[in-house]
Amino acid sequence: MDLFEKYESNVRGYIRSFPTIFVKAQNATMWDHTGKTYIDFFGGAGSLNYGHNDPAIKRAIIEYIERDGVTNALDKATDAKYHFIEKLQNTILKPRGLDYKIQFVGPTGTNAVETALKLARKVKQRSKIVAFTNAYHGHTLGALAVTGNEFYHDDYYGVPLNVTKMPFDNYFDSENQMDSIDMMRHYYEDASSGYEVPAGIIVETIQGEGGINIASVEWLKKLEKMCRDLDILLIVDDIQMGNGRTGNFFSFERAGIKPDIVTVSKSIGTGLPMAIVLMRPEIDQWSPGEHTGTFRGNSLAFVAGAKALERWDNDTFSKEILAKGAKVEQRMKAIAARFPQHIGDVRGLGMIWGIESPVEGFCGQISREGFERGLIAETAGATDQVIKFLAPLTISEAELDKGLDILEASITAAAAKHPINE
Amino acid sequence: MDLFEKYESNVRGYIRSFPTIFVKAQNATMWDHTGKTYIDFFGGAGSLNYGHNDPAIKRAIIEYIERDGVTNALDKATDAKYHFIEKLQNTILKPRGLDYKIQFVGPTGTNAVETALKLARKVKQRSKIVAFTNAYHGHTLGALAVTGNEFYHDDYYGVPLNVTKMPFDNYFDSENQMDSIDMMRHYYEDASSGYEVPAGIIVETIQGEGGINIASVEWLKKLEKMCRDLDILLIVDDIQMGNGRTGNFFSFERAGIKPDIVTVSKSIGTGLPMAIVLMRPEIDQWSPGEHTGTFRGNSLAFVAGAKALERWDNDTFSKEILAKGAKVEQRMKAIAARFPQHIGDVRGLGMIWGIESPVEGFCGQISREGFERGLIAETAGATDQVIKFLAPLTISEAELDKGLDILEASITAAAAKHPINE
Amino acid sequence: MDLFEKYESNVRGYIRSFPTIFVKAQNATMWDHTGKTYIDFFGGAGSLNYGHNDPAIKRAIIEYIERDGVTNALDKATDAKYHFIEKLQNTILKPRGLDYKIQFVGPTGTNAVETALKLARKVKQRSKIVAFTNAYHGHTLGALAVTGNEFYHDDYYGVPLNVTKMPFDNYFDSENQMDSIDMMRHYYEDASSGYEVPAGIIVETIQGEGGINIASVEWLKKLEKMCRDLDILLIVDDIQMGNGRTGNFFSFERAGIKPDIVTVSKSIGTGLPMAIVLMRPEIDQWSPGEHTGTFRGNSLAFVAGAKALERWDNDTFSKEILAKGAKVEQRMKAIAARFPQHIGDVRGLGMIWGIESPVEGFCGQISREGFERGLIAETAGATDQVIKFLAPLTISEAELDKGLDILEASITAAAAKHPINE
Amino acid sequence: MDLFEKYESNVRGYIRSFPTIFVKAQNATMWDHTGKTYIDFFGGAGSLNYGHNDPAIKRAIIEYIERDGVTNALDKATDAKYHFIEKLQNTILKPRGLDYKIQFVGPTGTNAVETALKLARKVKQRSKIVAFTNAYHGHTLGALAVTGNEFYHDDYYGVPLNVTKMPFDNYFDSENQMDSIDMMRHYYEDASSGYEVPAGIIVETIQGEGGINIASVEWLKKLEKMCRDLDILLIVDDIQMGNGRTGNFFSFERAGIKPDIVTVSKSIGTGLPMAIVLMRPEIDQWSPGEHTGTFRGNSLAFVAGAKALERWDNDTFSKEILAKGAKVEQRMKAIAARFPQHIGDVRGLGMIWGIESPVEGFCGQISREGFERGLIAETAGATDQVIKFLAPLTISEAELDKGLDILEASITAAAAKHPINE
Q1: Do residues B243 and B268 make contact, with C-beta atoms less than 8 angstroms apart?
Q2: What is the pLDDT along chain A (422 residues), one digit of tens a residue?
Q3: Residue B124 and residue B13 in one domain
Q4: What residue in B sits closest to D152 (Cα-Cα)?
Q5: Which DSSP state fits A179?
Q6: B251 and B197, same structural domain?
């Protein structure tokens, strides 16, 4: 590990939470260089929904490489890209009635977000974008402007320009809180409020990094309606919550809404770098080459992604996700019941779950205890008040059980180290 | 091709210049779905310096996948990353006396640039960054702010904040032009000039997208000296010109300067998405996790990149680059001599060359003629006034000769279509 | 009037509402060039609280001019300034326990606001300022940024930088609205809300231009407490509501709060250009000359202002204001009762009153009817939904009665022209 | 003086350079409370071109007050305003062929500048404004953005948005400097320079605060031509250099140019607060009331200003200015010849002159020596390297001689305190 300390920037993070060298991974299990195994409840922060090294995907990639397929084509056409587009349209978009065009962007989520925001501003010829409290959309300057956590900001980066922050659903957590969509509507309909109608509103239907905050179906529908009424583009950032995480392919399906723009990344390439932006055709007002980037044509990710989408040919996968999610929920709630003073809330949906603790440092302790016992699990939320479950959707029953057992043991150990003084 | 038109965003660009579907590539040769071959003088815009599908690199990647190496590890430690760091330090940095720490960033050049700018601002606690006329650094908002071409900008994206544009070396192209570094020094030493000392200055030693504009060694040395004198960080964006393009590994080696920060991407992962930022250790003032991203741990790129760096174990590769470059220069100048009214300038260095034409539309025509004849070559410059040579450094003599022959034929054909009326 | 149309900019405004040439004025009566008289319920938008051409003030000014007193001294010391400072401290500030230093700024309200905002930002070394919905603070870029009405804004002026708009007291006008101070506190205590603690909060205790919106005493106290708790500077813009308008000298006295910074202008110079900023001594962190301006030493205004402050030597003036205000309230409410469908609300305090109408164009019609009948009265609010009473505090009983009679007649006439169709 | 120290903000400036209380002033002579007299070479920083308390002006003001003329009318029409407009058009604008409309703005120079910049941006629908090195245009945020001196800026005020600084004529002071207008033209004609064509360019034909820097006639003509060619509005800030300072009424007359917008303040109201913006009629695209302010109708200034303009009924005044200026020049150059090591340059035009010293602190010392001996004279330039002559244009021969004598004595005394060590 000395080499990393000596030569890698101080910015390195997860290596500090999980200080070992990983050498192998299969589905939800990882091996380090000493041979120790870990159950992966972190899942590459949502980029490994299809598990590590899925055999079918491996085979597809290797075949492509062996036959000298073009690996980097910028945005020239390749057979790899052709098949990916075809598969995404036929398997995912058309069956859901989503008439979207696809933009291949630089293969990072933050690039997809920047693209979506630029496009919304260009199309509407308005500068303002609305984002929500606790939102997380990335770290390049345009995306950072819509990301809430002040930890990522610095006065000298330049002000987060042209962004209005609004309270996420249920943000104030109080009886008499005002619905934030009523707030916005009031502002935008009052010419003297000091609030301009934005070009677009960017929302995560479930805030992952922000602490597993789930927007209600009612709120999402109301948000969509306001956007339609006031001619605002609705942008769903589905980078972490899409790709089946909630049981459906897109996280917004549960609300029955149709965003104008959707950002997709992480698992869309099965963990290989890839990001796309989906948009209604009439919004696709780009000039050729107006937003470019070298790695927009990462063919290995196209090949892998197309293969992975086969899981969505029927509804088996979706059902499995929900079944596993139900088990996670049941186990977590049982654990929570054992530690009522340490655990304030268990919340989630499909295969995204969080355990929130009012005890400072408790969730960080769980993560450390877990690592010791062979579990990879990270915290979320501005004060790391949540321990997050983001395991591969393909996790086996055995892996899941083992992981949940370790989680329970870790919580028990953490609770012992954080006694409640009453 | 209908599928792309129907489903891919209008933003698609190179597919319009080279309208066919590519299915195979080997070193500097590409095959389309009809079996037609093309010599690749474009080289993935600088990301394929080691050619398409190098056999040794292919083998390394496949082996890694077959043994279930971790493909996406965020910034957890993996053996793939370990070996890449070790190789980069031992083969490249140490022999050049460059004591740099490495930051793995989101795998796009624009992310590397954003990271460098954020870091410079954070470290110096100043907002301003200087960039140059015709600079190209990427398309996310922070990087876009330092990119000159107005085609990429829109009023509603928000103003390019905190950026001062200065003339690149020899920009004004006139007898009595003032040296831009004297200009800057004068501004910064005058408290009433309205110019603040910036946190950093970002420079391409050769502007590729800007039109193959080559900064002189003298100017680069003078720039470095001013940065030292006035406590400004010198950032070299070596994304397109690094990785051996100029004959040396880094493009700034020819000037004998040592930047404070260097951005590297494109060929560093042999065409697989990867980007890093190199920085002097004392500048590495990040907090853990302060700049993150999902795909910072693209192991396949680490494996491929480490393998590619073996070419730098001795100076053979460097010599080959210079030898091939000399041939390119000789051929291009001979062609230019045949078309004195169509070709205004031939300029370059190592394996980066450009032919500039004063005739509007001429270089675009060359590109089209080339495609027809089996050559992939793109234009550069704000008005596409340059045809650019960016072939793989590994291109074979045969491929090179064939490509140059097609280039000459294409120029001849283009000249016939653009007669000069005197 | 042709001369004005031909040579004065289209921006001219009140000349359109009151299209005649005024040649004489005494207390609350104005004469035009035809000899017609008007009762002035507009009072120079709050700059004529002491009436037009008060005899004692006239005498003081003339004496000063006749003895060749220095009229423009920049910020050199003059006897005129000496006496003004002395009078303001002894008669106003000390008796109220307000330990403020005085800054003489460029003689406009907008300059006082700019100064206050610059000072708050400089002292706290934070960029953000909070302002409220419907706020009006002036038209230079810094002040415009905190002014709500979009009519005054243009995309190309530059974004209203570093300003957060918050709902004014009772803004949402709904049962379940959240207290805006609870909102702010929640935001500022959540590091991931996307809201930074501001340098200062600027507030009008009663929004005049915004539509005579009155902040409750409870809300103002709560605002002050939050500012103290979170180390935010509380700035009261008392430009229109100060100088006795509400019965007390400062409008914030009714709430028992002590702002950190107070902007004062309009009647402080009895209608001659003058503006000052009051600040707690520990906030006075300016360097000499850091905020300057040519007309900071308008001696005629100092002489006039010092004379006017004599009215505050005892509490007679204050009692008169309240007595007159009570009459205004009574008459207005009686009028409102006659027109329940045209008049939605009558609200005010001291000598600031507004009649709000839900009928579009109704208040503009009242203004026009009034002008015809010899009354100067203007509208307020983003949609001109309020007719505003801002008469000189010194208005005679006879003038007041006459004015209110004309107002009633004008409302009657306006109502006839805006029949309600049910 | 204790009262000022105790109660006036630390920002007070000139009171520190001239620490006494002034009680009387006549033409170019001031009296303090001890009876000591001073010759005024500062002239209210250009606002007292017509001298202190001109008898004819005094009489006009007193008459207006005595007949109860309206003193504050916002922008309602008054006879005072009528006569001012008429006089300005007939005596100044028409004879010079200047077809300008007049906008009355808040009575400060900074407000005139803000108005000009807002108007230019609104009319051209572009954000950028060009201003020059060492420019001084005021202290509200919009005007501050075009003011060079960093002393007036603070990181937390917000970035000086949308402003490009360009070198003033002869700025680099070197043989091979590039003409700044050629620079701009090059930038604006290159789509990839990173420089956008601005809405307007604001320029002082002579920079007063910046150190008496005189733009050449040739440069001003060339600037105007570029503005015409590239559809940029030319804004002359004539606040300090207008009103006859250079011999002509407007400072730009000597170059034979016709700006699109002109800002005028200071002496236009003879030292009483007033500011106007002149603009070509087709640029007058304001909506009614779009830029407002309480003190736009300062009638005393209209009355005084109209009276003062009578001096321009024939060319006598202009000739007097030039004659006095010639004497100033001669005396100053003679003094400079006596102190070749202390005085580097004497420069000026009409009645604006500056003596520049390469010796640090020398000019400040002259100012202090002068004050002791009965002279009010201030420094200019970013490092106070210039002593500035801005006496009333109406100064008597006797006052002028006396002042120049004191100046010479003060320079002699200052030189003795700053011996040159060689």
Answers
A1: yes
A2: 899 999 999 999 999 999 999 999 999 999 999 999 999 999 999 999 999 999 999 999 999 999 999 999 999 999 999 999 999 999 999 999 999 999 999 999 999 999 999 999 999 999 999 999 999 999 999 999 999 999 999 888 876 678 899 999 999 876 667 788 999 999 999 999 999 999 999 999 999 999 999 999 999 999 999 999 999 999 999 999 999 999 999 999 999 999 999 999 999 999 999 999 999 999 999 999 999 999 999 999 999 999 999 999 999 999 999 999 999 999 999 999 999 999 999 999 999 999 999 999 999 999 999 999 999 999 999 999 999 999 999 999 999 999 999 999 999 999 999 998 76
A3: no
A4: B192
A5: P
A6: yes
Q: Which residues contact A304 (CB under 8 A, 6 or more apart)?
A: A57, A60, A61, A269, A270, A271, A272
B158 part of contact set with chain D, CB < 8 Å: no
CB pair distance less than 8 Å for C150 and A196: yes
Residue A422, domain member (yes or no): no
Low-confidence ranges of chain C (pLDDT < 70): 159, 174-176, 422
Would you say residue D229 lies in a domain? yes
Residue position matching structure tokens 């220095």: C70
pLDDT digits (tens, 9 = 90+) for A272-281: 999 999 999 9
* B residues 279-308 lying closer than 8 A (beta carbon) to A: 279, 284-295, 298, 300
D93: DSSP letter? I
Question: Could you write out the DSSP letters of every residue in B337-357?
Answer: HH-TTT--EEEEETTEEEEE-
Question: Quick check: is A212 in a domain?
Answer: yes
Q: Are B76 and A33 in contact (CB under 8 A)?
A: no
Q: How many CB pairs under 8 A join C and D?
A: 355
Q: Does D140 touch chain B (CB under 8 A)?
A: no
Q: Any idea what the CATH number is for the domain that residue B88 is in?
A: 3.40.640.10
Tell me which of C280, C312, C344 is where a domain ends: C312
pTM for this one?
A: 0.94
Q: Are A25 and B70 in contact (CB under 8 A)?
A: yes
Chain D, 175 to 194: residues with Cβ < 8 Å from chain B are 176-178, 182-183, 186-187, 190-194
The verdict on residue C191 lying in a domain is yes
Q: Identify the closest residue of chain B to D210 by CA–CA distance.
A: B192
**Sole residue written with tokens 């989906």:** A278
Neighbour tally for D176: CB within 10 Å: 11
Q: Are residues B114 and B217 in the same domain?
A: yes
Number of domains present in the structure of chain A: 2
Domain extent, residue A370, equals: 2-54+315-417
Whether B362 and B403 map to the same domain: the answer is: yes
A22:B152 CB<8 A = no
C24 interface with D at CB cutoff 8 Å: yes
> What are residue D135's phi and psi, to 5 degrees?
-70, 150
Which residue of chain C comes nearest to B160, CA vs CA?
A: C158
- In this structure, are A62 and A17 located in the same domain? no
User: Testing the interface with C: which of D64, D101, D140 to mutate, by most C Cβ within 10 A?
Assistant: D140
Q: How far is D183 from chain C (nearest CA, A)?
A: 25
- HSE (CB half, 13 Å, CA atoms) of B135? 34
Closest Cβ–Cβ partner in C3, C18, C290 for D85: C3
**Residues A85-139 pLDDT 10s:** 999 999 999 999 999 999 999 999 999 999 999 999 999 999 999 999 999 999 9
| CATH number of the domain where residue D29 is located | 3.90.1150.10
Strand-pair partners of A102: A278, B8
- Does residue A340 share a domain with residue A253? no
D159 pLDDT tier (thresholds 50, 70, 90): low
Final residue belonging to a domain, choices B271, B288, B312: B312
Residues B325 and B368 in one domain: yes
C159 and B155: CB-CB below 8 Å? no
Q: Any idea what DSSP says for residue C90?
A: I
Does B234 share its domain with B287? yes
By C-alpha distance, which of A296, A263, A267 is closest to A119? A263
Hey, is the C-beta of A159 within 8 angstroms of any chain D C-beta? yes
Chain C residue with minimal CA distance to D77?
Answer: C21
Chains that touch B (3 or more CB pairs under 8 A): A, C, D
- D-chain residues near C198 (CB < 8 A): none
D360 close to B (CB below 8 A): no
All chains having 3 or more CB pairs closer than 8 angstroms to chain A:
B, C, D
